[in-house]
Every structure is written in C-alpha cells, then in structure tokens.
Design brief:
This protein is α+β, with helices and mostly antiparallel strands and 461 residues long. It is 30% helix and 24% strand. The protein has an 8-stranded mixed sheet with strand order 6-9-10-15-14-13-12-11, sandwiched between helices. A 5-stranded mixed barrel has the order 1-2-3-5-4. A two-stranded antiparallel sheet has the order 7-8. The structure holds 4-amino-1,4-dioxobutan-2-aminium adenosine-5'-monophosphate and magnesium ion. The site of magnesium ion has 3 residues, from β14.
Length: 461
Amino acid sequence: MSRTLVKDALAATAPRDSILLQGWVRTRRDAKAFSFVELNDGSSLKGMQVIVDATLPDYPAVGRAHTGASVEVQGKLVASQGAGQQWEVVAEKFTVIGEADATYPLQKKGHTMEFLRGIAHLRPRSNLFGAVFRVRSRLAYAVHQFFQERGFVYVHTPIITASDCEGAGEMFRVSTLDPATPPRNEQGGVDYTQDFFAKQAFLTVSGQLEGETFACALSNIYTFGPTFRAENSHTSRHASEFWMIEPEMAFCDLQGDMALAEEFVKHLIRDARTHCAADLEFFAKFVDQDLLTRLDFVLERPFQRCSYTEAIEILTQSGRAWEHPVAWGDNLQSEHERFLAEEHFKCPVTLFDYPRTLKPFYMRVNDDGRTVRAMDLLVPGIGEIIGGSQREERLEVLRENLAQHHLSEKDYWWYLDLRRYGTVPHAGFGLGFERMLMFVTGVPNIRDVIPFARTPGSADF
Ligand code: 4AD
Ligand code: MG
C-alpha cells in the first residue's frame, strides 16, 4: 500500500477502508482502553489523530511512541467523533520506525526563537517552522510561475565571480591558496595569478551584471539564486547568505521597472493568501495579529511613489528628532525608511531618483547630472525589500561612471561591450527572498525564514 500524506487524508471527502500514514509523533495521550497519537508528517500544519485500541496486537509498540518518534500507521480513515477534527484514523497496524527518548529537544511548546535557532536541524518539526518552510517553498514556485507566465527566461548566473556588482567591497573570497604561506608578488602582496582561477575570485553579491548580458539577448530574463554579502550588519534583516530574484528587461525604463516590482510583490502575497491559508492564519494567531489585514490592505491599494528629494523634504519637515539627522545626499537609515512606509504613506512606497553618489556605477544618470534612475521599494515593518534601477546604456556615460567609482574598464570590458553593440535602455531589480518571506509571514527575524542562517559569527550546521 502506498503512503498517503496527512494533508491529503485530512482533505478526504469520504471514509477509507485502508490508509497508510507515516510521520512523527507530536503528542500521545493514553486512556484505559486506547491511546490517541497525533501524527504529523509536515505536509500540513494540522496532524492526524490516530486511535490505537488496547486490544490491538501491536498495542505494546504504542508505549514506545514518544514525542519525536517516527511511526507508521495502517488503518481506517473514519469520521471523527471528537471535536476539532473531521477525520481520524483507527489503527490496525502500528509500527515504531525510530524511537525518540525524553532527551528529544522539542518536547513541549513555548520554546524561545533563540533556543530553536540552536536546533535548526530539528526546528522544521515544529508548527511555526513547518509553516515558514512550506510558505517558502510555495513562494519559490510562485516566483517561477510569475515570470514564466510573462515570458521571462530563467538564467543561472554564476555564484563564483570576479566582479563586484554593487561595488561595496562586501565579497567573500574564493581561494585555494594556503592562507599560511600564500605566493607573493614583487610588491609583497598575495600573488593571485597563482590562485585557482588565476585571478581574485569571490562569491557573488548579485547576478545582475551577468543577467544584463542575457536580457540584451533574450529580452526579459530573471535569476533566482543564492547571493552573499560579507557586510558586518548585525540586524534582524541582514544575512550573509540570502536568496535574490533579479528580473532584467530590455527596452524598459524605470517606470516599467517599478510597475513590474509592484505586480510581482502583489502576486506573491496573493499566492500565499490562496495557497498557504492555514499557515498564514497560524502566523496571524501566534506571530503577528495584524498580518492578514496588512497583507490584504497592501493587495488592494496601488503602491505610492515618491522621489528621493521629496522624501528628504517629508523627513526634514516631519518634526521628528531623528537618531541620524538627514539631509539631501545622505543615505536613508532604517528609521527614515520605516517612517515613510509606516507612518507617512502607511503603505508600500517606491522611492526613486537617488543621488548619484549613493548608488553603484551601473545606474542611469538623469539629465540633472546629480541623480540616478534608482528605485527602492519600502514596505511597512521591514523597510527596503527591493532595490533596482534603469541601467546606464550610454557607453561614454558608463565609462565616466566607472572612472568616478575607481573601477577599471579592463575588468568590465564585457559589460561595456553591451553598450558597444546594440545597446538598449534596460532596467531590473532585486527582491530579497527572505525579506519578502518576513513580510508575508510576519516573522520578525531573517534568521527564522531561512533553513540554516549564515550571519556574522555564525555558520553552524
Ligand atoms: O539593493 P541591493 O543591494 O540591489 C542589488 O543587489 C541589485 N544588483 C539588484 C538589481 O538591480 N538586480 O539588493 C537587493 C535586495 C534588497 O532590496 C534586499 O531585499 C535584499 O536584496 N538584500 C538582503 N537581504 C538579506 N540580507 C542582506 N544582507 C541583503 N542585502 C540585500
Ligand atoms: Mg539596496
């Protein structure tokens, strides 16, 4: 007999004479004449109640079915007599596959998130993390669906790269040189020509530059993969390894870019509302009471748009005592971004046309010469969730930008070629997948929406 997932058994429309379930024991209650075992296999938040009669030949095995043990149950699916569930399984065969004793760390509810991070290998067996990772899986699928339905081509950009897309110098080095005795060049520095790739290599911070080359051939493309940042940010929104989705569109300007970003974010929210309803209700009950109202509010309204210059005016005229006072030309801090999304606009807002000096070399310079066609999408509760821009498609301006950023044309020869041969206006953005998951689940820490978090000082498991 083949296995039925608990999710499918719970959705049954009629009783079944014979069913096989496999999973882990969440709880067990023993009465005189029978035991109740709650079995969960991760396919849904809800488990299946299994009743094992004391007269069953297998009954002695139930005594070994402690919380955390894996079991297999064969029996009948019947309408439940008790409250709280429609169906239950009356066991005919009950087997313990793998025991778990009293040292099993997930004995009872009410563990702190900190404790659960320390058992990242077991936490997916809890209600909260089961729900988080089902939503993560579903939204990964929805990402592909969104772009594939719109004719975007999925491109696998490299993870090991020699170019620093964001120019922030926050890259992890990839090297096979012996750190104790590296070969030296004449200046006494490390001689990377003798390294594995015969040059310096790093883990990518973004697939954008390589993505642009494909957009300038296949028109509309997207990437979806891991990216790495060696930034020493100890916040609840920064991870050293995170997943990013980066669409890139040829023959597209900043307006089209902002429109796609809004449509995309709304698609992901709508998809989770439809396909992860039970999990989202769980988050609304235990993590963030306002979650569902907020998500629906965001779905119903157009996102606001506001230039960086207007945003600075709003901030300086707000009368707030900022921890970091802000003036034109300054980077917006988290407190500013959150004020704009949460208190001023009270909805997602896309800021655009940032000062040239704040942004990477590849952004298209506006006619004013001092701003670039950048955009950041800010959402309540989190702040920046998307960063994007129209790209500089004019060869001469791009060369000037490289020089201003002290980057060498030699390293970007292939990127410059896109502007030499059939250049087009093009634009794209990056959505941080974990930040999106935080927004959709209400889970306030990025460490809790990624299976195994990598943050400064921590790479366990
Ligand atoms: O704003 P960022 O740095 O933009 C880029 O990397 C562009 N190359 C994207 C593009 O235009 N194709 O990063 C994009 C998004 C951010 O808005 C944020 O959601 C997420 O990636 N992100 C992080 N998420 C988690 N941890 C970090 N350390 C992150 N850094 C950026
Ligand atoms: Mg950014």
